[in-house]
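Postdoc handover notes: sequence design on the structure in folder B. Input tokens:
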């Protein structure tokens, strides 16, 4: 047992440090009755848009809302197919389904756990052109393919240049799922510069669930884009289709960002760059501590084109469940992101996928283990975690 339990994520300490500022947000809302919309929401949207190097940011009620509204505003329709990966949280595919489309999966890269561009190329190569509608149509479902949703996973960007090239070749829209990648960067060889996640595709979806790198004190999300019309449509979709009060241009949803959450996010956004730097430093310490055990444990791989922000620090081990149980008994919190790939979930049994269809995702899902990761994790805590982890790994291998 460690001297003191080490949580998987610490959501308490940073709120203690900012308590007065956060309480002032609530006081302001109570004093002004600005609970929905208003200056706090608009101010956060402007600041987060600048942070992401995007012209527009639209605050919404959750990351799921963000992806759903982004897909709808980007022109995904009922009856379409949208390509994504099976190694992600179900919110990715829920958003696709809630638009009326159907998710189609391609496998992940075995090292980055993000969409494998060559697997995407292979999948698109099996499709055919509907000459009448001038659309790419899936041979699997017969549906027109309208979009690709690459998932920036665990705080690291997907390899976007080849994905964007394929999208352009086949006239498909790219909407980034950036719900775990606030501040992550991608080096575009085509543009010869580093790009922030949220500024690469047609639009991007962010979640501000409390455990994210930038987390609200409740549910919240945002869409970023450089497309003025898309941003305008998202603003209407989040607010019952209104372009002004009681004037409805379309049917919409109740998906607005609460003003108090926007105010809280605005306070925290000032710290995000520093927090991300602290996460990268913690990841580097993990790398160093685990470097001698590369044969039995796989540490995160960060390619030259990525600057990850380590929302999660995910290792791989063959006896994942046994190791996790032993760590838990030693007072060390862990997580599994995600234990069952989406194509094997009961919720998607109607899609007809089977075990073996996406071997990289399936193998990863059976081995991945997320170690404690948060900005204030100390070197001493990390040393205790790794010491315990390696003693458990040695015991299970014996």
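Designed sequence:
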């Amino acid at each position: 047992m460690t001297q003191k339990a080490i949580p998987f994520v610490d959501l308490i300490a940073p709120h203690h440090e900012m308590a007065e500022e956060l309480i002032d947000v609530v006081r302001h809302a109570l004093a002004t009755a600005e609970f929905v919309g208003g200056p706090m929401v608009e101010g956060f949207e402007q600041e987060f848009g600048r942070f992401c190097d995007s012209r527009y940011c639209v605050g919404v009620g959750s990351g799921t809302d963000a992806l759903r509204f982004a897909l709808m505003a980007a022109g995904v329709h009922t009856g379409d197919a949208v390509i994504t990966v099976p190694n992600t949280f179900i919110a990715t595919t829920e958003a696709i389904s809630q638009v009326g489309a159907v998710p189609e999966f391609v496998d992940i890269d075995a090292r980055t756990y993000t969409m494998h561009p060559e697997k995407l190329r292979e999948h698109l190569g099996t499709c055919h052109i509907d000459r009448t509608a001038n659309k790419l149509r899936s041979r699997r479902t017969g549906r027109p393919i309208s979009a690709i949703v690459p998932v920036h996973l665990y705080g690291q960007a997907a390899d976007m240049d080849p994905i964007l090239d394929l999208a352009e070749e086949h006239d498909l829209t790219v909407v980034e799922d950036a719900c775990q990648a606030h501040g992550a960067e991608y080096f575009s060889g085509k543009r010869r510069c580093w790009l922030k996640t949220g500024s690469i595709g047609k639009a991007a979806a962010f979640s501000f669930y409390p455990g994210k790198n930038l987390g609200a004190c409740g549910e919240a999300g945002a869409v970023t884009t450089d497309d003025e019309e898309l941003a305008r449509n998202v603003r209407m979709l989040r607010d019952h289709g209104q372009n002004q009060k009681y004037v409805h241009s379309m049917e919409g949803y109740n998906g607005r960002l609460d003003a108090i959450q926007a105010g809280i996010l605005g306070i925290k956004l000032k710290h995000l760059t520093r927090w991300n730097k602290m996460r990268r430093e913690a990841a580097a310490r993990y790398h160093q501590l685990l470097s001698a055990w590369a044969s039995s444990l796989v540490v995160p791989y960060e390619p030259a084109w990525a600057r990850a922000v380590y929302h999660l620090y995910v290792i791989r081990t063959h006896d994942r469940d046994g190791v996790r149980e032993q760590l838990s008994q030693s007072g060390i919190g862990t997580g599994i992101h995600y234990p069952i790939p989406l194509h094997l979930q009961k919720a998607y049994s109607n899609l007809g996928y089977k075990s073996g269809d996406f071997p990289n995702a399936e193998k990863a899902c059976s081995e991945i283990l997320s170690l404690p990761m948060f900005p204030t994790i100390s070197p001493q805590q990390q040393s205790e975690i790794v010491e315990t982890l390696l003693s458990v790994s040695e015991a299970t291998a014996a």
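Context for whoever picks this up: The two ends are 21 Å apart (CA to CA). Don't rerun without checking with the PI first.
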